[in-house]
Amino acid sequence: MEKYGFVYIWFDRKHKRFYIGSHWGAENDGYICSSTWMRNSHSRRPNDFRRRILSRVYSSRADLLNKEFEWLNFISESELGVRYYNRTKHMNGHWFTEEHRRSTMSQRISENTKAAMNREDVRKKYLKGLEKRDTKSSDPTVREKRRQSMKQAMANKFPIEERKIKPVEFGSEEYRNNMASSVAESWKLRDKKAIGSKISGSLANSKEHRSKLISSLKWYNNGIVNKRLSEHPGDGWIVGRM
């Protein structure tokens, strides 16, 4: 399928706002736009947005940007960020229009590595490092030796006598018996009188607080309804009930 790009315009019917942009790809590939502001609005209210294709460009990405810039020039400065989601209409160039920036990261690393290895000082350091490097990590014998060494190290760090015993199965009879014994033991250690006094005091304080709160309220009315509040509700209200 022939690659092409297109210039589009979105319309937000709720806020009567537009957005102009371009995309190199298929018209139905799910691309929305590059504006975070507009994209967030679209994600919250997708049914409020409609898109229309303004132009299609089949030649190159650079030509697509030029066509987009032509459409952006129809926007006045006062409309940017107000009637349009577009905040600017300057064409600074996209990364994909510059050939030297289109190379992948792996290609760049490869090119830089080759250039560095051509330097004698870098190559000497690299070969010296290889002499000390363990290159036998794939050897089954070496791998088993390392596994046994790690196993012994963990055994020394976590002795068997300090490890947790396998827990009792949840819901089993032994589990219920253990829970019953634990609860019974915890109640033995409590001072029931002290607990009762604490609960009674808490209830009394709560009742006293409620009584103070109610006594601080006053009745107000506006000729239609009555309200009991701690502060005057404002203009149109007088003290007392109707």
Describe this structure in words.
It is a single chain. The protein has 242 residues and is α+β, with helices and mostly antiparallel strands. Among the domains are: 5-99, 3-Layer(aba) Sandwich (GIY-YIG endonuclease); 104-133, no CATH class. The protein is built from 8 helices and 6 strands, in the order ββαβαααααααβββ. A 3-stranded antiparallel sheet has the order 2-1-3. It has a 3-stranded antiparallel sheet with strand order 5-4-6, with no helix packed on it. The protein is flat, with a radius of gyration of 38 Å.
Identify the CATH architecture of the domain at 5-99.
Answer: 3-Layer(aba) Sandwich
Write out the CATH superfamily name of the domain at 5-99. GIY-YIG endonuclease
Care to count the β-strands? 6
Structural class by sheet pairing and helices: alpha+beta
Are there runs of 5+ residues with pLDDT below 50, and where?
95-100
CATH fold topology of the domain at 5-99: GIY-YIG endonuclease
Supply the number of helical segments.
Answer: 8
**Average pLDDT value?**
79
- SS strand fraction: 5-15%
Gyration radius, rounded = 38 Å
* End-to-end C-alpha gap: 81 Å
Order of strands across the main sheet: 2-1-3
Helix content: 40-55%
The best one-word shape is flat
Order of helices and strands: EEHEHHHHHHHEEE
Can you summarize the main beta sheet? 3 strands, antiparallel
**CATH level-1 class of the domain at 5-99:** Alpha Beta
